[in-house]
């Protein structure tokens, strides 16, 4: 798959972890990947935990999984909000059913838990939600990045380089 044709949907809500949103976006754009930020409202400005703003390119309520090659979920406190939207859970389940890459870091595991797609999957996350991950049926590993098929997970901001190397490997098949 050529990076020129790849489109990734990155979910967003207020209180996202600034680095966990922006580092992947910038890294993917450097690789020639088109990234769209999807919030509840298109063109709304969302503010990260540390005050960094991001504007949604589109609404996740209208996003169509078949228009994208992969999905990213940042951490922070946003995942606790995102997992409450049935449209988000449906999107995650569609990406999973199509075996398109899904990246999640830190607290983003909450979204995958609520979408009920982690049973039997090897994943990592912030240790703070390890019990949640295991209670959902996942096999939790304390590693910087874990690849299990099309699901790529990571623990926290210091692991972003390993996370993005793993995600790009799965996304671009390299």
From TrEMBL:
Keywords: Hydrolase, Protease
A Pfam family of this chain: DJ-1_PfpI
CDD domains associated with the record: GATase1_PfpI_like
Single GO MF descriptor: peptidase activity
Residue ranges annotated for the DJ-1/PfpI domain, each copy included: 7-169
Biological process annotations from GO: proteolysis
InterPro entries with a match to the protein in the record: C56_PfpI-like, Class_I_gatase-like, DJ-1/PfpI
The keyword Manganese is annotated on this UniProt entry: no
Family (UniProt): Belongs to the peptidase C56 family.
Database matches in NCBIfam families: PfpI
Protein name: Protease I
Source organism (scientific name): Sporomusa malonica
């Amino acid at each position: 798959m050529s990076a020129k044709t790849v489109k990734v949907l990155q979910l967003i809500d207020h209180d996202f972890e600034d680095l966990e949103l922006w580092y992947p976006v910038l890294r993917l754009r450097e690789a020639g990947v088109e990234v769209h930020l999807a919030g509840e409202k298109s063109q709304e400005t969302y503010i990260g935990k540390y005050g960094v703003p991001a504007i949604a390119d589109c609404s996740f309520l209208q996003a169509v999984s078949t228009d994208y090659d992969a999905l990213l979920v940042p951490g922070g406190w946003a995942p606790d909000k995102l997992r409450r939207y049935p449209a988000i859970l449906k999107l995650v389940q569609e990406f999973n059913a199509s075996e398109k890459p899904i990246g999640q870091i830190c607290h983003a595991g909450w979204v995958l838990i609520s979408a009920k797609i982690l049973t039997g999957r090897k994943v990592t996350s912030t240790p703070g939600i390890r019990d949640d991950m295991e209670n959902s049926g996942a096999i939790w590993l304390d590693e910087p990045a874990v690849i299990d098929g099309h699901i790529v997970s990571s623990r926290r901001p210091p692991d972003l380089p390993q996370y993005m190397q793993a995600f790009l490997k799965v996304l671009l098949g390299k």
